[in-house]
Amino acid sequence: VFPSLAQAQASVANEIYQELGQPSIFLFCPTEYCSSLCSPSPSQSCYLQTIGQELLPGIGVIWTGPKVVSQELSAALLEEVEAVLRRCPVIWDNLYANDYDCRRVFLGPYMGRAPGLMSRLHGLLLNPNCELQANFIPIHTLGTWFRSELRSCAHPDHAGMEVVAALGDSQGAQDGSYSPQEALELALHDWVAEINQQALEPGR
Questions:
Q1: Given this model, what pLDDT does residue 47 score?
Q2: To which H or E segment does residue 62 belong?
Q3: Which of 27, 59, 169, 196 has the fewest CB atoms lying closer than 10 Å?
Q4: For the whole model, what pTM was predicted?
Q5: From CA 28, how far away is CA 31, in angstroms rounded?
Q6: Which domains does the chain have, with CATH numbers?
């Protein structure tokens, strides 16, 4: 019936979206959901070009970055994806995901995301560790990153700071940019307090 997979997917997604009354949040995950799955690149992918053209503008499109698990997200990549999809992507961030190898648990701070990214995102979803208790630091430091991004949006002169600030600048708190190390220290302080509180509860 359809000349391509992308047109079939867009048609079905559009019909469901309209049947549901065009909800404010409706997400579509493309078959090519990261750069490494695109041929030859996101901007030259016929599949993504069709999705961008055919998918109704109110539908959010999920993207994981350069890879399925992306260590870094850059403004340049998001610009490329935004152009081909004709909308800002919803980042499905697999930085902490360990469902592919449950022998590993990721406890480091949220990092590797260039400052000023929030203005290029339609949303951000964090795929956490499978172990609930292991996600205190990931979620806490994501919150610190988010607050830093909100400050950058309120003060545009901060939005163009060097990527090194997002990767560990120790002066982060002084200039308003995000510092993973400082975010980690804040998270550890609060996590210890949470653990101590739980230890005092009856039956613990």
A1: 98
A2: strand 60-63
A3: 196
A4: 0.84
A5: 10
A6: 5-155+179-200 (3.20.20.80)
Peptide bond into 156 cis (omega under 30): no
Do 89 and 61 touch, CB atoms closer than 8 A?
Answer: yes
Cα–Cα distance, 59 to 178 (Å, whole number): 30
Fill in the amino acid letter for 80: E
Cα dist. 151→23, 52, 133 in Å? 29, 31, 29
Give strand pairing partners of 63: 91
Q: Map residue 16 onto helix, strand or coil.
A: helix
- Element holding 90 (H helix, E strand): strand 90-93
User: Distance between CA 178 and CA 164 in Å, rounded?
Assistant: 10
Q: Rounded to an integer, what distance in angstroms lies between the CA atom of residue 40 and that of residue 24?
A: 33
> Residue 203: left if φ>0, alpha if ψ -120 to 50, beta else—which one?
left
**Angle, CA 34 vertex, CA 110 and CA 122 arms, to 5°:** 65
What is the pLDDT, as a whole number, of residue 177?
86
As a whole number of Å, the CA-based R_g of the chain is 19
Query: Low-confidence residues of the chain, pLDDT below 50?
Result: 158-174
CA distance 49 to 176: 37
